[in-house]
Amino acid sequence: MAILVRPSLRHPRTALFKRGLLWIVVLCLWASAGLPALPQAVDEYHVKALFLYNFAKFVDWTPATPTDTICVGILGDDPFGDVLDQTVAGKTVNGRSFVVRRLKRYEDAKVCQIVFVSGSEKKRLHAILNGLGSFGVLTVGEMEGFAAHGGVINFEIAGGKVRFEVNVDAAERAGLKLSSKLLSLATIVRDGR
After folding, report:
1. Is a pLDDT exceeding 70 seen at residue 38?
2. Phi, psi of 103 (to 5 degrees)
3. What is the span of the domain harbouring residue 104?
4. Which pTM was predicted?
5. pLDDT(86) > 80
6. Looking at the domain assignment, is residue 55 inside a domain?
7. Residue 24 lies in a domain
8. d(CA 178, CA 135)
9. What backbone phi and psi angles, to 5 degrees, belong to 104?
10. Residue 57 has pLDDT above 50, yes or no
11. In a domain, 77, yes or no
C-alpha cells in the first residue's frame, strides 16, 4: 500500500519565517519568566550581553544622540570578555550599529548610550551615577542597591534566573524613555527604595 503525501503549497520562506517567529516568541516568553543563570560565568554574561543588546531596542534617547552607532561602554573590570563584542557584532538597532568600549574613567562614558558599571566600581558608584545621571546614558549594573542608588537598570540573580530591576526616576533624570514592554518585564524601583 502506498502512502500519498500531499505536496506543500507553502513557500520555503514562509516556513522559515514561521520558525523564526516561533523562536522570537519562545525567547520573549523565556525572557518574561526570567532567563536562567547557567552554572558557568560565561553563560551568565552571555545572557547579560543579550539583555544589553535588547535594551537598546526598548530605549528612546531624547534628545536623540547624533551618532551612527550605539556605544556600549564597560566601566571598570570587564566580566564579559569577548562575549559582548560577539553578541553585538554586525547587529543594528534602528539603523545604528554597535561599538563596545572598555573604560577606566566615568568621564569617558559620557559619549556612550549604554554603560555597564562593573562591580569593581562599587566604591566610586555615587560619583559615577551622579556624573552620568543627566547625560542620557542608560546605566546598567549588577550590584546590590545599584538601581535604588540611581542606576537605571540592575541585573540580579533570583531563583537561578537573571532578572532586572529598573529605576524609573533615574531613567527620567537621564532623559530616557523606556518602553512599556521593557518595564513590564522588570521590577520597578524608585530612588532610595
Report:
1. no
2. -125, 145
3. 36-189
4. 0.77
5. yes
6. yes
7. no
8. 16
9. -110, -25
10. yes
11. yes
